[in-house]
Amino acid sequence: MTLRIDITGLPAGRLRFAASPLAELTAMLHVLAEPAHHPQLADWADGVWAAMPSELARQLREAQFLWRSSRADFLVPARPRRTLTAELDDLDRIDDETYVATALTTTCGNNRIHFPAPSPLANRAAREHALDLAQARGALQEAFAERLLADPTAVRAQVRRTLEQCAEAFFTTAWTAVATELATDLRLKNDLLKRHGIEAALGSVSSAVTLAPDGDSIIVDQLQDNTTTAHDQGVTFIPSAYGRPHLVVIHAPGRRPVVQYPATERSPSQPVPQETVALRLEALAHPVRLRLLRTLARGPHTNSELAHAWKLSPPEVSRHLTVLRHAGLLSARRHGRYVHYTLDHTHIATLGTDLLTALLR
Question: Cis peptide before 245, with omega less than 30 degrees from 0?
């Protein structure tokens, strides 16, 4: 399974490597919302939460759906600016229709779950469908969606104020601390692009990002089958010190594709018993379960949401979830009348090392 970015006829100069303050802030907010994804940053996250003003903490929890399970497209700029303020100014120029549609696609849990084509700002049926999807994600998410639909101007202003308060509370200090690391990474990438071409530059981004043999596509090795096009828009690559292990790809029709990649390598993992490794490999040896895990990797989901996202029957999804839970790859927690399934990111992340250790032991 791969994501293919068509770059047919695209000059090397239309591939841009640049740092983005807003994208890095979003990566930090994701760490704060999902610390299990980033155990190497646990001390940093604990320190930020401990020092954070209570009102800002409340605001972050209310808006975390914009960056927790996936990133709202507008929070990873296709055209990065040098300052956070400049990028927030660009964000303010997005029309309400686009902002709300993008926020609700993320807010409702997975980019495969969409409301009908009419705007929920103008169409009652689309609005009700969006709220139904948000309700299954929990009370905070439902309340956020209701406020956004009722008064998008006020919610947008509040989101901006929250991001600006994050800059004061922790982002400016953290951004300054990683500036040299990101600048070094960008010099390397741009030098490779200039001297050795697109293939060498992509190879330095990640082993999961390659140039197709015909040179007409960038191939991203992710658990999805999708194609987008850069054409004359180009592709933006943004390094992140706080994003690992995530490789975030933002793509939508008519939008310049963006790839946010880790500027550092992920840390080593711990081994597990051979029997557990074998059980997990057997559980993963099915394409449907891999698709379900792709969705669960972005955050907790219900059986019904998974069935809707992948066009499966709820009983079929339930059978696959049972196998994954037996292998210790998932956990389940009830929230009212909904059961949310959560991926154990650590076990997935360490499976390759666990297998090699088992073979050599």
Answer: yes
